[in-house]
Amino acid sequence: MGFIGRAVAPSPISANDVPDLPASKITSGTFAESFLTNATTDLQPLKSDITALALREATNESSASFNLPNQHIDTFATDTLGTKTNASINSGYVSSVSTGYASPSTTADDVLVLDSFGHSDNEDNFVDLSSGGVGLTTLGHSNSIYYDDNQKLTGASVSIRSEGGSSDELYNANANTPSSTAFQNLPSETNYTVELWVYPFNSVNYGTNQDSLFDIGQTFQMEFDSSQNLNIYNAYASGNQGMGTLNKDAWNHVAYVKQGSTAYVYKNGVSAGSGTARTSNFSDNYIRMMYHRSSGTRNFDGFIDLVRVTKRAVYPDGTTFVPANVWNYETTTVNTTGTIIQNTNTVGSSKSEVGGTFLYKNESGTATLGTDLKVYFTCNGGTNWTEATSYNAITPVYSTGISQVRLGKTTCTAGTDVRYKVEWANQSGSKTTQLHGIGINY
Predict the structure, then answer these.
(1) Domains and CATH numbers, the chain
(2) What pLDDT is attached to residue 177?
């Protein structure tokens, strides 16, 4: 007969009995919220991916900067930055290249330089900038010629307007300035250039009266023919040069260049013809713009700007060029260093961790991230700044030439004003780096 006794209850299973239980074995039950809160999973890569998606959508839509509940996105479609030092925004990116505007520079060979920079609507005080050259030309005018803000060339707020009236004329008022023969003897110079920008109106038929645009010494004459083609009469030793029609309601660049024994004519940077240069001097020492010397009905109605007469072959050999890049108001400076700082960004609760994504392009050279281009974060409005902990490339690249970079999670002094700062260094003509967008998460 066997032994019959009482069953002994098993001991409870403790945490030490299952120290390495795989999570896959846990198929039911509820975890305490504190367990999840204390988890060590790094969500920054996921946050950065979301930021990258928001940044892509914003750049595709050319959106202005905006905030999401826990993110800030900036594509530089508009300038909403708080501070810029040696940096400027240009067409959706920012760099340490600063763009400004100024009157064109002059040389000792300039006989006449006339522009619109610094002038205001309805002014009529025309100033020759060539005072550093052969001498200041006194410019006078008759009737309705003035600076007008209905049109402007690159960087200016106004351009020179003629209403084409019977006595509209812009001219050098004294034949003895800038010198007794500065204009008259141009054909005797080895090299010289006459150039200007012209804006004809679509509403005007310049062939009706064969209007006159520019005249030097009663001999060199830019005039329209009955078909509205612009011609330079006496452009060569024998013969004229037709240039075809000009684009209406648009700016056109016209240039005549004497280079040694050859003369070249250009329209909008493209050769319109060439021939043996004239060497016989002109009949007098006057210039006349938008005026026909012997007919009160043949005056040009439209805008002109950036008029230059100089004893140089500015555009040699009949070679095609881009006029806007050769001589205009715009000036650029590549600053060695630069800084931008996001504007005030007040968030709903105190933050102490920031990450993000940015887009950049090597316009020239190759930037070293963390050296030539750095990103900093603050959580307390700039009292303290901390550089991003890492710069990690994201593949594929954003678009041709533009790369994506993930910024590592960065701990900063806690606060409720979260911002980014970007610094450029070692920038030069051979190394320029563009920032095309940035998104930060917190």
Answers:
(1) 44-98+336-441 (2.60.120.260), 110-328 (2.60.120.200)
(2) 85
